[in-house]
Amino acid sequence: MKAKIKWLDGRAFVGESGSGHAVVMDGAPAAGGRNLGPRPMEMLLLGLGSCTAFDVVMILEKGREKVTGCEVELEAERAEEEPKVFTHVKMNFRLKGKNLKSAAVERAIKLSEEKYCSATAMFRHTAKIESVWTVEEG
User: Fold this and answer.
1) Angstrom distance (rounded) from CA 34 to CA 88
2) Do residue 4 and residue 55 come from a single domain?
3) 63-83: per-residue pLDDT in tens?
4) Do both 21 and 45 map to the same domain?
5) What residues pair up with 67 in beta bridges, in sequence order?
6) What's the structural domain count of the chain?
7) Among 34, 81, 118, 122, which residue has the fewest nearby CB atoms (within 10 Å)?
8) Single pTM value for the model
């Protein structure tokens, strides 16, 4: 896996993934940025959420569950001192499906957290990760 970061100006950077996708990241105006894109630490949080959502949906589908929607809202706390690593992350999963079983959702989330999600494995070194979920018919 490869990635490339190029400084644009101020505190703005463009990141290009090895698969050819690009995203602009920027700092807050208070830090010299122009708020042109997400902060780098926000990108890490987005990566965690999408990595675990990917796993959960795939596990549910492999279990022949009829999942029709998955959203994950994340709230994170960071250390007060440098380096300001994440110290606590709460993930709120909202899943939707036809006759989606709570036990299957719980199992999928646990498997993602404990076995499959590479981002969770890395975050776990500095942060307490907490997951809650709801299931909606649809």
Assistant:
1) 28
2) no
3) 999 999 999 999 999 999 999
4) no
5) 97
6) 2
7) 81
8) 0.94
